[in-house]
Every structure is written in structure tokens, then in C-alpha cells.
Write a structure and sequence with these properties.
Blueprint (H helix, E strand, L loop, with lengths): L33 E6 L38 H8 L6 E2 L14 E3 L17 H13 L5 H5 L1 E6 L2 H10 L7 H21 L4 E5 L8 H4 L9 H25 L4 E4 L1 H15 L11 E3 L18 E3 L16 H15 L5
Parallel strand pairs: 1-3, 1-4, 2-3, 4-5, 5-6
Antiparallel strand pairs: 7-8
Helix pairs in contact: 1-9, 2-5, 5-7, 8-9
GO molecular function, one term: hydrolase activity, acting on ester bonds
InterPro entries: GDSL, SGNH_hydro_sf
Family: Belongs to the 'GDSL' lipolytic enzyme family.
């Protein structure tokens, strides 16, 4: 999730389309689960307002569903793949809860907003604490009762934007980054425990991706190498997060909290992608990017509507869609590396 506030200034309008999850052959025995999602653009499926969200602007969504659907990708994101694995449709985005039939709420709900973090970020959108407030309100209103929550799973993907915000505000003060990580962990542990306290039975938390491999960072090497200093920061965050989840499990004497290792999944998927992908594959280079780095972004247009971005010929040959987010192809590869961990959500 990571760094998606860089896209926030785009203005767009587009007709909303309700989107189903991809069928990955999940078992019918899992079909009664509810999925509740919290976090950032890696899992957001449409909570940004159409008038300001870059995820609602062309060419986002060109692979699936064929037009922008609020996802920060050309197609599906992590939420879609996990929902399909659980045997359910992708849960409705919180923003649209009053505009759909009650039956559309039976798969859970997605509270994630691209650009947000554990703490406040440069994106003026609900942080994780506020997202949980939204969830608590629905529980108190009996939108989801005890039986629903007894069959529920939580998904959390967050923190990349926290680091992006810190680095933007503290360019020359990286010595305190470790202290900032501890601050994130303190609040994140409170938030995760709170979701559990509201009745969610199993909660999967993503470890942070290798931040130095995001195209925005890899651009300085012409997309040939990751920035290792940022990857070390990701490792430190993940070590602390693993310890926090162990503490929470020990507190409840349970295994309710599990990790989804995005760090290793990214590297594994990237390695397979670069080793076995056909000629023309893009590696760390994004499929869609502004014509001028730092000034224009994927989806940028001028006053006459002319495109100020370029897009690759075949998104299926890309791992990254834009300078911040995986493509649908990338997410499919990442999900394949995560599958072995997901069985813990349903056992």
C-alpha cells in the first residue's frame, strides 16, 4: 500500500460498476465466511470518491472489469484473490453500503482507503483507527450480528503510506526511523486487538512489501535494482510486526492472528516473473507511468483531455501496473506465493 498518496490530485468521474471476485476454485465449505478488510490501496476496492480518486480514472481497470472500478490496478487486487480463495464474492466497499441490496453485504465489507496508514498520512482519508470506527458502528447497528462475526475473517494491509509520509516529512532525519516503526507498532497492535474484540475470529495481517522495489524507488536505477536501504526498513518493520502478533496470540492463548508475508511473496513472484516470463516483460518497470516522472502520473491528462502518460502494450507482461502498485498479473503471482499461508484462516 504503499505510497499511493502520490496519485491523489487526479480529477475524474466514472460510472460505478459492482465487481465480482475471480473464481480460484475455492471450496464450497468456506462459502459462509464474511471478510472484513482494513488498510490501504493494496486492498481498496472502491472507497475513494470518484471525483478525486485516481483509481476511478482511465486506464485503471482496463484488464478487469474493463473500466475503472476504484482499484489501484489495471484489474484485481489482493482482496479479490483472497475473497475468491475463501469462496465468496469480493466484499462491498464501505462507500457503497447504502446503495446496494442487503444481500450484497453478506460477504463482509471493505473499509480500506488507498493512501492511508496506521497513523495519519498525506492522504486526507480515513486512517485505520477511523476505518475500525466504521466497522464498530455497523456492529452496534446490528448490520452484522454474532453469527456473522462467528464466521468472519479480517484482512489488514497497511503501513507503507506511514513510511512514505515519514520520509516525505523527514528527508534528512532517518536516524529516528526505528522509533517511528515502534510508534506504528504500538498503534497497530491496539487496532488489531480492537478488531478481534469486535468479534472477528481470524485476522491476517500483511507484512510490508520490499519498499525499495516499488518502481517509484527503483526508477533511480532505471528500474534495474531495488533500493536496499528501504528494503532493510521493510525487514525491520516485519520483524517487529511478527513479534507484535506473537504477543497478541500469547495474550489470547490462540492462533487468531496470522501473517501474510508480502515481502517474500514479492521477491518470489518477481523472481519467477523475471526468470520465466516471455520476452518483453517489464520487471521493475511499471506498465503505466507519467510522461514526466514526478510531474505526471498514470491517468494524468491535460486540460483538453490529452494523455500525459504512457501505457505498455500488454499489461499481462507487467508485474507493476503503475509506479506504486502491482498489476493484476503481479497480484496473481503474489497471491500464488501466499496460498500456503491462507489455509490458517479457515482451520
Amino acid at each position: 500500500m504503499p505510497f499511493s498518496f502520490f496519485h491523489l490530485l487526479c480529477y475524474i468521474t466514472i460510472i460505478f460498476a459492482e465487481v465480482d471476485a475471480v473464481n480460484e476454485g475455492a471450496s464450497k465449505s468456506k462459502s459462509k465466511l464474511r471478510l472484513f478488510v482494513f488498510g490501504d490501496s493494496y486492498v481498496d476496492t472502491g472507497n475513494w470518491r470518484k471525483s478525486i480518486g485516481s483509481s476511478w480514472k482511465e486506464p485503471y481497470g482496463i484488464t478487469f472489469p474493463g473500466k475503472p472500478s476504484g482499484r489501484f490496478s489495471d484489474g484485481r487486487v489482493l482482496t479479490d484473490y483472497i475473497a475468491s480463495y475463501l469462496g465468496i464474492r469480493t466484499p462491498i466497499a464501505y462507500k457503497w453500503r447504502k446503495e446496494v441490496k442487503r444481500s450484497n453485504l453478506e460477504y463482509g465489507m471493505n473499509f480500506a482507503y488507498g493512501g492511508t496508514g496506521v497513523l495519519d498520512t498525506l492522504a486526507n482519508q480515513p486512517n485505520m483507527t477511523t476505518q475500525i470506527d466504521f466497522f464498530q458502528r455497523l456492529v452496534e447497528q446490528k448490520v452484522y450480528g454474532k453469527q456473522d462475526l462467528d464466521n468472519s475473517v479480517g484482512l489488514i494491509s497497511v503501513a507503507g503510506n506511514d513510511y512514505a509520509t515519514y520520509l516525505a516529512r523527514n528527508t534528512h532525519d532517518l536516524q529516528k526511523l526505528g522509533d517511528f516503526t515502534k510508534k506504528i507498532m504500538d498503534q497497530l497492535e491496539i487496532n488489531i486487538d480492537r478488531i478481534r474484540g469486535l468479534g472477528v475470529k481470524r485476522i491476517a495481517v500483511t507484512l510490508i512489501e520490499p519498499m525499495g522495489c516499488i518502481p517509484l524507488q527503483a526508477a533511480s536505477s532505471s528500474y534495474s535494482n531495488c533500493t536496499q536501504a528501504l528494503n532493510l526498513g521493510s525487514k525491520f518493520h516485519n520483524q517487529m510486526l511478527n513479534q507484535s502478533l506473537q504477543n497478541l496470540n500469547a495474550k489470547d492463548n490462540s492462533t487468531a492472528f496470522i501473517t501474510l508475508d508480502l515481502y517474500d511473496a514479492f521477491f518470489s513472484a518477481l523472481n519467477k516473473f523475471t526468470t520465466h516470463a516471455p520476452a518483453g516483460s517489464l520487471g521493475l518497470k511499471p506498465c503505466c507511468e507519467g510522461k514526466e516522472m514526478g510531474k505526471y502520473y498514470c491517468g494524468s491528462v491535460d486540460e483538453s483531455g490529452a494523455k500525459l502518460y504512457t501505457i505498455c502494450e500488454n499489461p499481462n507482461l507487467s508485474f507493476f501496473w503503475d509506479t506504486l502498485h502491482p498489476s493484476q498479473n503481479g497480484w496473481h503471482s503474489i497471491f500464488s506465493s501466499l496460498r500456503s499461508s491462507l489455509h490458517k484462516l479457515t482451520t
